[in-house]
């Protein structure tokens, strides 16, 4: 019996155009493209959008090859997520992601950050990504001579305040020194049935 | 393009004329197909109307539709060169060789109802060189 090999695709959604009529405080430059996702964008609706993209670009054959992917994780706050797909077909899914041009009428680019053989590695990369982002924002804030540290980050996550449950929280404790990340990525090897 | 350099023994056994070179075309750029558009129920042999025999635009429309269904936009992006149309119902086309398996799978698995007849495609011939479709061994080229 041969095990079915999988690939886990870690992606992040970039929004080149800021959402209109929002965000009172200016967004740090390094976060300009990293907006929170619309509240309507959930794991299931994202799967539908990606499936449409596959069907449009690769037809029935593509749907047969890559239609069986699963959205293992998606965070609206950080606009990152993890997809699972069989190893032979991950390039089709990748291409379909690249061809997505807008989400809910908002111009968007889905960037594949990492392709990994285990979900653990993908999670690690997601954590690193979030940590890097926070570090970058802090540095930028410091460089601009801001005394109210943590304000910029608060603004970013305030902009993403959404009604829905946000599975990934990045909380920054106090000042620069002791920052702590609470990220609960659901490693759901057993909940395959909830996606399709 | 690989140049087939003759081994030393061969040269000794059968000397080549000076300047003679041999090469094998291993991966040709094109695949040539001979297609027929099928109608069910079929048109009478001498039937002639605006919808039969189909013109090249009809061919292009139907091929695109078949490819769009099976392969999506990436299938419609396969460039099709119409080389010759025998009598409308049959054409000779040329497509990139790498696309030919997908192309053939896409068009042969397609069918559509047009004016009460099911339209489909049949691949009558597929070869990397157009001579394979036209017939003949091509020796007359070298005479």
UniProtKB/TrEMBL annotation, chain A:
InterPro entries: Pop5/Rpp14/Rnp2-like (IPR002759), Rnp2-like_sf (IPR038085). Pfam families: RNase_P_Rpp14. Keywords: tRNA processing. Residues 163-196 are annotated as: Disordered. GO terms for cellular component: multimeric ribonuclease P complex; nucleolus; ribonuclease MRP complex. One of its GO terms (molecular function) is ribonuclease P RNA binding. Belongs to the eukaryotic/archaeal RNase P protein component 2 family. This is Uncharacterized protein. It comes from Dactylellina haptotyla (strain CBS 200.50) (Nematode-trapping fungus). The lineage of its organism: Eukaryota, Fungi, Dikarya, Ascomycota, Pezizomycotina.
TrEMBL record, chain B:
GO terms for molecular function: ribonuclease MRP activity; ribonuclease P activity. Residues 1-12 have a biased composition (Basic and acidic residues). InterPro entries: Pop8 (IPR020347), Pop8-like_dom (IPR049128). Residues 1-20 are annotated as: Disordered. Residues 29-110 form the Ribonucleases P/MRP subunit Pop8-like domain. GO terms for cellular component: nucleolar ribonuclease P complex; ribonuclease MRP complex. It comes from the Eukaryota. One of its GO terms (biological process) is tRNA processing. PANTHER family: RIBONUCLEASES P/MRP PROTEIN SUBUNIT POP8 (PTHR28173), RIBONUCLEASES P_MRP PROTEIN SUBUNIT POP8 (PTHR28173:SF1). This is Ribonucleases P/MRP subunit Pop8-like domain-containing protein. It comes from Dactylellina haptotyla (strain CBS 200.50).
